[in-house]
Structures are given as C-alpha cells and as structure tokens.
Amino acid sequence: MMTTSRRNFLLLAAAAALPACAGTKKIATPGVPLSPFDEDSTADEVLGDLDLTGKLVVVTGCTSGIGFETMRALAARGAWVVGTSRTREAADAACKSVPGQTTPLQLELSDFRSVVDCANAIRSINAPLDILICNAGYLGAGGAPQLVDGIERHFAINHLGHFVFVNRLLGRLYMADQGRIVVVASRAAYTSAPRAGIEFDNLDAHRDYEDRRAYGHSKLANALFALQLGTLLRGTRITANALHPGVINTEIDRNMSRFMQTGFAVATALGYGKSIAQGAATSCYVATSPALGATSGKYFEDCNAVTIVGEGHLHDAEMAARLWQVSEDLTREFLVTHRGEDLNDFERAARKRRE
Ligand SMILES: NC(=O)c1ccc[n+]([C@@H]2O[C@H](COP(=O)([O-])OP(=O)(O)OC[C@H]3O[C@@H](n4cnc5c(N)ncnc54)[C@H](OP(=O)(O)O)[C@@H]3O)[C@@H](O)[C@H]2O)c1
C-alpha cells in the first residue's frame, strides 16, 4: 500500500504539473493589459531598466527561493527592501548577501505578536510603503493536522499571519503614490483546495485532513484575501493582487521526506517547473509594472492576469467577503482600527496634512 507521504507527493506533483485540474479552463482576464512576458520570463527581464530608487518594499520570507530572488532583483533596481525571516540571523544573512539597500527583520507568521512587532518596526521607518509582497509560505508534510491557537497551521501562517500584517501596514500603503499589495498564492488554490472552497466550519481541520488539501485551502484564502482587498480598496490608490509563481524547486519542500524532496527536484529538473529567477518574475511584474497601476483584485499566472473558469472558488466574491469577516473575528485583538488611536507622530502628521 502507498504511504501517505508518497501519495501526497504524487498528488502535489500532479497538481503542480497539470495545466489545470479537470473541469477548469484558464482564460485571460478581461480588462487587464496583456504583458509581453510569459512563463519563461525572469525577474530581471520583467523589471528591465525600471528605476525603483526611493521606493520602500517589504518582502516576507526573503531568505530563500522566490522571496530571496524577489528581494535581490528589486534591491538591484534601487528599491529599499525590508526582508523578513523567522530568525533575525537568517534575515541578516540574506539581506547582507544582496547588493543594494536592505533591512532585515524577524517575522514569525504563526505568532501574531511577532507579526505586530514586525509591522511596528516597519512603521518606525517613518516612510510611505510602496510595495508589500506577502511571499512567505509554509507547506507541512506531517500527515496530521497541527494547530496554532486552535486554527490549522497552513491557514494560520499563510493566510491569517499575512492578514494581520497587511492590516497593520495599510496606513503606510495609503501614504504611497500608488501602494501595491502582492499576495503570493498558488494554483493549489484551485487544484488542491477543498471542493467547497473555504471550510468555515473546519478551520481546526477536525475532518478530512491532508497536507496538500490544507495547503491548497490556505492558498485559496490568499487569493480570496487579495480579491476582497481589491473590493475594499476600490477608490484608493492601493491595489492588491494574488499570483501563482510557477512550480519551482525551492525550500518549500523542507518539511517533506527525502523521497518527496528528490521527487520534487526530479520533476522540476525534467521541465515541470521554472527556475527560481523565473519563479520570481510574476511577483516582480505585479509589484512594479506601470501597466498595472489600476489593476486590483486579480489573479496572475506567468505574468498575466487569468480567470479560472469552471471548478474552484478563486473568484468567489461572496466567499472572499465572508473570509474577511471570519479572519477579522479570529485576529481582532491584533488589528488596528484605523480610527487613529495608535498612530505614531509621523502618521498623525501625515494624516493632518491630508485632512
Ligand atoms: N516553490 C513552488 O513551487 C511554489 C508554488 C506555488 C506557490 N509557492 C509559494 O511561493 C511562496 C514562496 O515560497 P518558496 O517556494 O520560495 O519557498 P521557500 O524557499 O521555502 O521560502 C519560504 C520563505 O517563507 C519563510 N517562512 C516559512 N515559514 C514561515 C513562518 N512561519 N513565518 C514567517 N516566514 C516563514 C521562510 O523564511 P525562514 O525559513 O527564513 O523563516 C522562507 O524565506 C510561498 O508562499 C509558497 O507557498 C511556491
């Protein structure tokens, strides 16, 4: 009989490699400019000769894989990049290893106190925030559910941690000429998530737990988060979009068995995937392309906005609104009210100037 980890690997690999799951079709999203880039484009190619001097950027999960390459490519264009890791030492090492202006910070997304502390450290920079890339991600391979304060771990880290983080930094994004929120989701949002979408009655994973399903569930939450941000931020200068970076052999498989890691490496080497430079391209494109100044609430693959037709809940506005409400209820004590009672001097002065 096949072990759970082998079965999970095969399902993950299949979900990653297939063009789309049966019953779904991918079409270009109407109303979004087509980009000249595709699945082969790299982060450096999509950024071209853009000058990002004076832009403040935050990249969560900057120590490896897509986040590291995203930070490197943006810093190389003159952006000031704040890069985060679960440990300050790893963030330090990653930031030191790329040319340009970078600042390392500690962020543990499963600990909302740490999320608040990290956001406050960014607010102490006293500058508008131009780009916030929610890139950090967790993929478990334990076969049994793990909980963070009663909530399934993938959902808590990949979605709720970033939900709190974005909420605490919205004020700074408002100050930017054009603030951008980029949420690195995954096509697992429609290939591996539960058929019913977000399982509001199963956030503690008391039934039907599988790692890939829980990961897909959290990635669907990422995509719906960007969709609802797009709705709530309509009429402001902030945009929010989600994306699938591609299938890339990074450290995302760190919790898998040696067998699964080898299989993932072989699958990506055989061409079922992208290089890390290509994997960071969609993040960099969505974060910076002048063509996307008014594009919000959309989902991107291979540097273009796509709509998944058929099965899945990627574009389910009702589910996105409910997810927002539930996420707020679950994290309320860590959120700012935006009424202004916890503004610092810089923020208070900026708000006064605006009034
Ligand atoms: N690779 C793929 O094929 C693929 C496909 C679809 C989507 N994605 C998504 O792409 C994003 C980047 O993944 P990757 O492939 O580059 O993986 P990676 O190499 O494992 O990088 C993940 C980053 O997230 C950070 N991180 C992990 N757990 C965290 C936590 N609890 N709190 C804060 N930070 C945490 C890690 O930082 P430290 O370990 O230093 O703390 C690391 O820098 C993820 O959101 C992933 O879901 C990847």
Question: If you had to describe this structure to a student in words, what would you say it looks like?
Answer:
The chain has one domain (4-345): NAD(P)-binding Rossmann-like Domain (Rossmann fold, 3-Layer(aba) Sandwich). The protein is built from 13 helices and eleven strands. By secondary structure, it is an alpha/beta fold. Helix 4 links the parallel strand 3 and strand 4. 42% of the residues lie in helices and 14% in strands. Helix 6 (153-175) runs parallel beside helix 8 (211-232) and helix 8 (211-232) packs across helix 12 (317-331). The protein has a nine-stranded mixed beta sheet, sandwiched between helices. It has a two-stranded antiparallel ribbon with strand order 6-7. Mean pLDDT is 92; it is low at 1-11 and 14-20. The relative contact order is 0.18. The chain has helices spanning 4-17, 43-47, 65-76, 88-96, 112-123, 153-175, 188-191, 211-232, 258-269, 276-279, 281-288, 317-331, 345-354, and strands at 24-28, 56-59, 80-85, 102-106, 131-134, 147-148, 151-152, 180-184, 239-244, 299-301, 304-310. NADP nicotinamide-adenine-dinucleotide phosphate (NAP) binds at residues 61-67, 85-86, 90, 107-110, 135-138, 157, 184, 186, 244-245, 247-248, 250-252, 254.
Topology:
Elements lengths: L3 H14 L6 E5 L14 H5 L8 E4 L5 H12 L3 E6 L2 H9 L5 E5 L5 H12 L7 E4 L12 E2 L2 E2 H23 L4 E5 L3 H4 L19 H22 L6 E6 L13 H12 L6 H4 L1 H8 L10 E3 L2 E7 L6 H15 L13 H10 L1
Parallel strand pairs: 2-3, 2-5, 3-4, 5-8, 8-9, 9-10
Antiparallel strand pairs: 1-11, 6-7, 10-11
Helix pairs in contact: 1-9, 5-6, 6-8, 8-12
